[in-house]
Fold:
Amino acid sequence: MKRFLIAVVLLVGLGYALGGGFTSNASQAADAEAVARAAHEREQSLQSDVARLETTNNDLRRMMAEMEDRRLTREQRWLEYTNLVAELPIPDVPERPGFFPVFEPEVQAVNTTSVDPRQQRADRILMDLRAFLTVEHVGALDLLEIGLPEEGWTGPVVVRLIDNRGRPSGMLAADRLHLECSRAGHSVTLVFQNGYEMRDGLKVPFGRTAGPTAERGGVRRVPLFGIDPEPWLEALPELFDPSEIDVIQDDGRWDLGAVRAQLNQLLASDNTTGHWRLAAMGGVSRDVLTDVQLVELGQDDAVVRRIFADDLTLQPHGTGVSLVCTDGVQMRGSTSTPFLEGRYTLYLPQADVQEWRLAGLPGFVSGPVLLGRKDRKPALGAITGSGTPLEAKMPDRNESSADGG
Structure:
């Protein structure tokens, strides 16, 4: 009996297991049939879309062909019409219908107003100044008016001041504007004379005024560094001093190597105002040294500052000697400072004027007696009273150039 019951239980469990397996297989078969049916439907939908697009494409091609036929037909008819009109005799051509408007040619009025050439030149100067300031990235000055040009200046001038955000921050007005330049210092300076600056509604004169109630006075200088002044001189000659335009760098009378060597020797003997050395010189013109570079050296022969000047004049000053530099800049490191009012003077109080005169430097003698060109061969005894020729006392140009003098 016990074995019978165990057999019945086993048979029942086997039946449930077989039934569950049959159900799982049936479910998987149904899922596969659904996936296949969906794929078939998608394929039929795509085929239908492709057929519809092909039909639409054929319709469009047929319409374009019909339009092309109609265009060709119209062109053919128009060509036949124009040929027919061209074959008609002139008297048979009908007159223009009266209802078409008739346009009479406009008669341009003759401008009888005389044009002021000075105003035309002023307009051109204003355009050139604005262009130069734009090229040099000077965005703080916006020139509004420059007046009419005169000899060496123009005015009155009105300038709008712009801040670093490009917004108006004030105004600058002056009676005159002229330009100064330094070829050696690569700078151009805008010089505003007798004017004022206005900020927040307050007028501040440039400097001392003619009276307590005067609103204009003084000079305002705006230097621009790192600029080649030649294009400014060529385009704006009216705003420069005539002496700055036509400059002769070297008149060919002096031995430049000898001048440089003698000057450096005399500078080395007087260090009361610093140890100075003439590092470069372009030439000598009318007893003035041109395109010069002076270097001040420190205790360890390190460069303290440099002076670049278009002109350097040597002249006695009391018991000493003055070196007057004009139109240039001072440079300490990378900082450049223009000469105040275009001039800077180095005074050597312990310099012996007689020694400078005997050295025959420009400015101390009336001509290149001592330091003239080699082909002149003047005699040193003409000044000192000795019979020794120049070549015996003066270093050779090649020797002076070789030692850096």
User: Anything to note?
Assistant: The first strand starts at residue 141 and ends at 145. Residues 372-405 have pLDDT under 50 and may be disordered. Residues 317 and 347 are 8 Å apart (CA to CA). The two ends are 138 Å apart (CA to CA).
